[in-house]
Amino acid sequence: MSELNNLMEIGLRNCKECEQIPMLGHLRHLKNLYLHGMSNVKSIGSSFYGIDKCSRSGNTITIFPALERLELVCMWKLTEWLEAELMPNATDNRRLSQLVLVFPRLEYVKIIMCMQLESAPSHFRCLKELEISQAHSELPLAKLPDDLHSLNALDILSIRDCPNLMAIPYPHESHDEQQLLLLGLSCLRELSIHLPISDVKSNKATRRRF
């Protein structure tokens, strides 16, 4: 894969016989990654991140150092998208003290028609736009309650046709023109919006029940 190191965009489309996404996390210049129609992939995990091949600076390992846009579309059998974790190595105690930095520049994530997806990672600190559509399980959003409040760069949250989603919090602390689009959420009963302190007399979230 060394000949791919200078690629800035990769699109894997309709690779229906592929059961595993190739290792891409070490590509230093990759900015856009499109994974569409990979209908036999069931898991995104360690082989995707390629931690052992990623660049290091001191005790920090950086995965997908330049990635800005990531799309997962029509991955029918995808059930899990795992965190990037550094596995202990009995012969190298230094690994235990190393830090893993994932998606440090990722600004846009789209997850469309991944019907069976039940888990997703939480390392999206620079995210500006998140779009999720046609997810039958609410579990991919399970990490959002804790992490949305730390997404200070988030401008747009778009969630469409997720009929099993019951509740979702949404941060609104750092921008005046953040956008929220919720369509086709037939089970939604609670929406929490955190307003700028200047807009409210207390720090409590504005909560709307439907």
Descriptive notes:
With 210 residues, the protein is mainly beta. The protein has two domains: 123 residues, no CATH class; 84 residues, no CATH class. It is built from two helices and 15 strands. The strands form four sheets. It has a seven-stranded parallel beta sheet with strand order 1-2-6-9-10-11-13, with no helix packed on it. Strands 4-5-8 form a three-stranded mixed beta sheet, with no helix packed on it. The N and C termini lie far apart (51 Å). The C terminus is likely disordered. This is R13L1/DRL21-like LRR repeat region domain-containing protein. It comes from Erythranthe guttata.
Q: What structural class results from the helix and strand content? A: mainly beta
Task: Supply the number of structural domains.
Answer: 2
> What is the chain-wise order of helices and strands?
EEEHEEEEEEEHEEEEE
Order of strands across the biggest sheet? 1-2-6-9-10-11-13
Q: Radius of gyration from the CA trace?
A: 18 Å
How far is it from the N-terminal to the C-terminal residue, by CA?
51 Å
Q: Which percent range describes the beta-strand content?
A: 25-35%
Low-confidence stretches: 194-210
Mean pLDDT equals 76
**How many DSSP-defined strands?**
15
Q: What does the main sheet amount to? A: 7 strands, parallel
Tell me roughly what share of residues is in helical segments: under 10%
Global geometry:
globular
Organism: Erythranthe guttata (Yellow monkey flower)
Protein name: R13L1/DRL21-like LRR repeat region domain-containing protein
Pfam family, one: LRR_R13L1-DRL21
